[in-house]
Write a structure and sequence with these properties.
The complex is a heterodimer of chains A (472) and B (513). Chain A has 472 residues and is of the alpha/beta class. Chain A has three domains: 119 residues, 3-Layer(aba) Sandwich (Rossmann fold); 92 residues, Rossmann fold (3-Layer(aba) Sandwich), CATH 3.40.50.1980; 156 residues, Nitrogenase molybdenum iron protein domain (Rossmann fold). Chain A has 19 helices and 14 strands. In chain A, α7 packs parallel to α10, α11 runs antiparallel to α12 and α13 packs across α19. Chain A is globular and about 65 Å long. The two termini of chain A are 40 Å apart. Chain B folds into four domains: 118 residues, 3-Layer(aba) Sandwich (Rossmann fold), CATH 3.40.50.1980; 119 residues, Nitrogenase molybdenum iron protein domain (Rossmann fold, 3-Layer(aba) Sandwich), CATH 3.40.50; 151 residues, Rossmann fold (3-Layer(aba) Sandwich), CATH 3.40.50.1980; 50 residues, Orthogonal Bundle (Helicase, Ruva Protein, domain 3), CATH 1.10.8. With 513 residues, chain B is of the alpha/beta class. Classes of the chains: A alpha/beta (472), B alpha/beta (513). Chains A and B meet through α2, β3, α3, α4 and α5 of A and β1, α2, β3, α3 and α5 of B. Chain B: One of its GO terms (biological process) is photosynthesis, dark reaction. Chain B: Its cofactor is [4Fe-4S] cluster. Chain B: It is found in: Plastid, Chloroplast.
Chain lengths: 472, 513
């Protein structure tokens, strides 16, 4: 059977009636990552209620995060925004003494048109702490895009890279690297057993916040390939933000920080390396290859390394081969995950995605297309701003082996005999690089393995009177 | 503006959604930005709900902010009407619609012309009421709407049933142990020979609401939700209601006596008899429930005078305080509620049963109070559970807000006679585990703590260089030991003596493969 593979990707756009986390949920990520930051979300009870439920137990572990809850007086401008905010910031300074306050705007501040960006510089001088303003609001963004707005705001604060002088401020730079990647060999560290010599590549900054243990893996991966990574955006500490500027290359590790990429290019004059994202062995290899090709360094042993990773995944691959997946879409990782799963031998019916930046994800889309061609399966349709109701009707027709979906739909779908994997787990699990290659198939196969152990107990349809897939 | 990390009661629209999605075949449409359908996640996850939560959003995006919703709300309502054929669509305002001040009533009026479903706008204001008040109000609004409609159509049936019957009002989704309490309340009424006319909103049908007045009386088990509907029914249909929460031995008896009073107003004329529930109360109290016996047993004697702190919603905190003080002889140092709107009632209820009555919705205040009092046990919400954890004080969860652990599949009512058993267990377990801990501390801890684990590291032949040491320290504490052991095992197998970061990752790959 020959399948006609279309050379172009097909994009569709639905109504945008889908379930996703609010972008402020990514606040959790930023404050955990940037150790000396404090995030202040200005919004209403609704935002607060969401975060306390979404962040669960972390919220009670003395988080470096708080709500500035707007009251009726704030909305009707009986209270002065500036004075109110100053009062709260001073209290935060007194209680926590952070190096930076990340002030997250919400829909409320958008609607009442609070001039956050205007207030910040003045407030900053008055209280003596940098205030970074990010608008992570529901009207504009979905889940992981919240992180993007924070990083984009951070990009403005990165120190200027003075490459023209030829000598960077070496001590500060070293310190930054030292803190981020304690294992990176530096000249002054004599005990390093075998100093690896880096090619003289231009400075590279990777953007996207990853847990620190994961963050060091892609950079050690690039180190193996003799690429020096001077910085990460965000860094572990606000004071260690990497330098940006003319001549600095930036590359994303996640598919969602497209605003950050735009900001780095347009405002900070950086050069963006458009690469697929290092998710899955195939993605990681393509990511490194792309970076190397930009720097004109020849790739070494990457193919073997990828192959070797696939070998270790064999047990999982046997489980997923030929199974079908349906992405409902809620966190922008969908294209990369789908691409990697297709490479694993799965069939993807639909890739729902909140927003697809075609330029930022161009290399990823191209790799997806090539992957489909290599695996001889039709390119799945990509549905931007999906409509969950329609998707459920489609799923009813297609009966996929696995639906990757938000928690609002997971239990109802399971009750109707459709295996699900919660999409949120992919945003919190460690899925980047070769070392974590097992984690994606581990998550994906979990419901399938659950099925193997529950075997033929005969209770898969668990809803009263077969209403089928009725939404209600 | 006020600084807040944690809130006890959610925003108003959550209350409305909880009531709407508890009814059968009622759909709620929120006027909200993307991401506000979070209540669906709570229902689907916490309650392990099998059906799709009947809540959708009419998304407020940039265009809506700029030009207004225009046709969008109306289109969404009529679309849902076609897709789901619900009996009722509840249009739900959120904080966003409060500020954008769109005329939602107008949209609702227009949509109700075009759709077969009934359409109403929930009458709640985000800035004035919280989740619980909104739920109470929405329930009353729905009841009123359908009774008014029936009256207009002349289908209202006001004749009461021949046999004693009752409505249970206020059981709803995401309520603390509501499903179990519902079953226990039904059992209680059945034992008393009272038929259940209707239970609302959980599982109820709005089409049946016109039959509400057929019951002899209404039972409102919780203070927070259902009272407005009950007072409306009393005012308009002369239906009496019982609002004493049947929680604990004494209050359960009190509740049954009130039921008896109401039943005996009609029973002599309608069924030619007078009912006497006293023998039932006596039998249950002394022999069926174990709680009365528990409070006499030497177990409970040991609890006498122990200090406890209680915090929660008005219903559960008040009932729990009375149970601890009156039925178990425990000294309640302090009992509080976050239901500030019901403070007067609460103070009156717990008067004489405790030393202090803080009314606050600031969890740091509650935490400081607990730290100051140093009670032997805390009975509160999830928040107090965490405070207890941090202060190393035993704790039991008695009220919302709660998480998935407090939606147990097993039968755990707080109401009625089985409820008294459950509460006895809860109290007993909290205190005994606390006692055990103290004894262990005094006598030097469990000996299991001292068992030297069969460790793989001998610290002799393997060295961790400073980088890998640092890397190891970055790994969360609870898995660090395991990673360390695995790495060393791998290093030994491969004859590596110097552990570097590279070795760590190689070990991870090798072991997970």
């Amino acid at each position: 059977m020959s399948i006609k593979i279309s050379e172009t990707l097909t994009f569709e756009c639905e109504t945008g009636n889908y379930h996703t986390f609010r972008p402020i949920s990514r606040v959790a990520r930023s404050y955990q990552k940037i150790e000396d930051s404090f995030s202040l979300v200005v919004g209403t009870k609704t935002c607060g209620y969401f975060s306390q439920n979404a962040l669960g137990v972390t919220i009670l572990a003395e988080p470096r995060y708080a709500m500035a809850e707007s009251e009726e007086g704030d909305i009707s401008a009986q209270l002065n925004d500036y004075q109110e905010l100053k009062k709260l910031c001073l209290r935060i300074k007194k209680d926590r003494n952070p190096s930076v306050i990340i002030r997250i705007g919400t829909r409320t501040t958008e609607i009442i048109k609070m001039d956050s960006e205007g207030m910040a510089p003045k407030l900053e001088i008055e209280i003596g702490i940098p205030i970074v303003v990010a608008r992570a609001n529901g009207p504009d963004y979905a889940s992981t895009q919240g992180e993007d707005t924070v990083l984009a705001a951070m990009a403005h604060r990165c120190p200027e890279e003075k490459i023209s002088t030829g000598k960077r401020n070496k001590t500060i730079q070293d310190q930054a690297i030292q803190d981020l990647f304690p294992f990176l060999p530096l000249e002054k560290k004599g005990e390093t057993p075998k100093p690896i010599r880096f090619r003289n590549n231009p400075p590279l900054v990777l953007s996207g916040s990853l847990p620190s243990t994961v963050a060091s893996q892609p950079s050690s991966e690039s180190k193996r390939q003799s690429i020096q990574v001077p910085g990460w955006l965000p860094a572990q500490r606000y004071s260690d933000l990497p330098s940006l500027g003319d001549g600095v290359y930036v590359c994303g590790v996640n598919p969602f920080p497209s605003r950050t990429a735009t900001t780095s290019m347009r405002r900070r004059k950086c050069k963006l390396i458009g690469a697929p994202f290092p998710i899955g062995p195939d993605g990681t290899r393509a990511w490194i290859e792309k970076i190397r090709s930009v720097f004109g360094i020849e790739a070494r042993g990457l193919e073997e390394r990828e192959q070797q990773m696939w070998e270790t995944l064999k047990d999982y691959l046997d489980l997923v081969r030929g199974k079908s997946v349906f992405f409902m879409g809620d966190n922008l990782l969908e294209v990369s995950l789908a691409r990697s799963l297709i490479r694993c031998g799965m069939i993807v019916y639909e890739i729902g995605i909140p927003y697809l930046d075609k330029r930022y994800q161009a290399a990823e889309s191209a790799l997806s297309r090539d992957t489909c061609r290599d695996m001889c399966i039709p390119m799945p349709r990509i549905v931007e701003k999906p409509d969950n109701y329609n998707q459920i009707q489609r799923m009813r027709e297609l009966q996929p082996d696995l639906a990757i979906t938000g928690m609002a739909h997971a239990n109802p779908l399971e009750a109707r005999g459709i295996n699900t994997k919660w999409s949120v787990e992919f945003t919190f699990a460690q899925i980047h690089g070769f070392t974590n290659a097992r984690d994606v198939p581990e998550l994906v196969t979990r419901p399938l393995r659950r099925n193997n152990s529950l075997g033929d107990l005969g209770w898969t349809g668990l809803v009263k009177k077969e209403e089928g897939m009725k939404f209600n | 503006m006020k600084l807040a990390y944690w809130m006890y009661a959610g925003p108003a629209h959550i209350g409305t959604l909880r009531v709407a999605s508890s009814f059968r075949n009622v759909h709620a449409i929120m006027h909200a930005p993307l991401g506000d359908d979070y209540s669906n996640v709570m229902r689907s996850m916490s309650e392990r709900e099998r059906d799709f939560t009947p809540v959708t959003a009419s998304i407020v995006d940039r265009h809506v902010l700029a030009r207004g919703s225009q046709e969008k709300v109306v289109d969404n309502i009529t679309r849902k009407d076609k897709e789901e054929r619900p009996d009722l669509i509840v249009s739900t305002p959120t904080c966003t619609s409060s500020i954008s001040q769109e005329d939602l009533q107008n949209f609702v009026d227009r949509a109700s012309i075009a759709s077969d479903s009934d359409v109403i706008l929930a009458d709640v204001n985000h800035y004035r009421v919280n989740e619980l008040q909104a739920a109470d109000r929405t329930l009353e609004q729905v009841v009123r709407y359908y009774l008014d409609k029936a009256r207009r159509q002349g289908t209202l049936n006001q004749s009461v049933t021949d046999e004693p019957s009752a409505n249970i009002i206020g059981i709803f989704t995401l309520g603390f142990h509501n499903q179990h309490d519902c079953r226990e309340s039904k059992r209680l009424l059945q034992d008393l020979g009272i038929k259940i006319n209707q239970i609302i909103p959980e599982g109820g049908s709005v089409q049946d609401l016109r039959n509400l007045p057929k019951a002899w009386f209404n039972l409102v088990p919780y203070r927070e939700v259902g009272l407005m509907a009950a007072t409306y029914l009393e005012r308009n249909f002369g239906m009496p209601y019982v609002s004493t929460t049947p929680m604990g031995i004494v209050d359960t008896a009190e509740c049954i006596r009130q039921i008896q009073k109401h039943v005996n107003k009609l029973a002599p004329t309608l069924s030619n008899r007078t009912l006497n529930y006293e023998p039932y109360i006596d039998q249950q109290t002394r022999f069926v429930s174990q709680a009365a016996w528990f409070s006499r047993s030497i177990d409970c004697q040991n609890l006498t005078g122990k200090k406890a702190v209680v915090f929660g919603d008005a219903t559960h905190a008040a009932s729990m305080t009375k149970i601890l003080a009156r039925e178990m002889g425990i000294r309640v140092s302090c009992t509080g509620t976050y239901c500030k709107h019901d403070a007067e009632w609460f103070k009156e209820q717990v008067q004489g049963f405790c030393d202090e009555v803080p009314i606050t919705d600031d969890h740091t205040e509650v935490g400081d109070m607990i730290a100051r009092i140093e009670p032997s046990a805390i009975f509160g919400t999830q928040t107090e559970r965490h405070i207890g954890k941090r202060l190393d004080i035993p704790r039991g969860v008695i009220s919302s807000p709660v998480h998935i652990q407090n939606f147990p599949p097993g039968y755990r009512p707080f109401l009625g006679y089985e409820g008294t058993n459950q509460i006895a267990d809860l109290v007993h377990n909290s205190f005994t585990s606390g006692m055990e801990d103290h004894l262990l501390e005094i006598f030097g801890g469990h000996d299991t703590k001292e068992v030297i684990t069969k460790s793989l590291s001998t610290d002799k032949d393997l060295t961790w260089n400073s980088e890998s040491q640092l890397e190891l320290n970055k790994i969360p504490g609870f898995v660090r030991g395991k990673i360390k052991r695995n790495t060393e095992k791998f290093a030994r197998q491969n004859g590596v003596t110097n552990i570097t970061v590279e070795v760590m990752y190689a070990a991870k790959e090798a072991l997970s493969a």
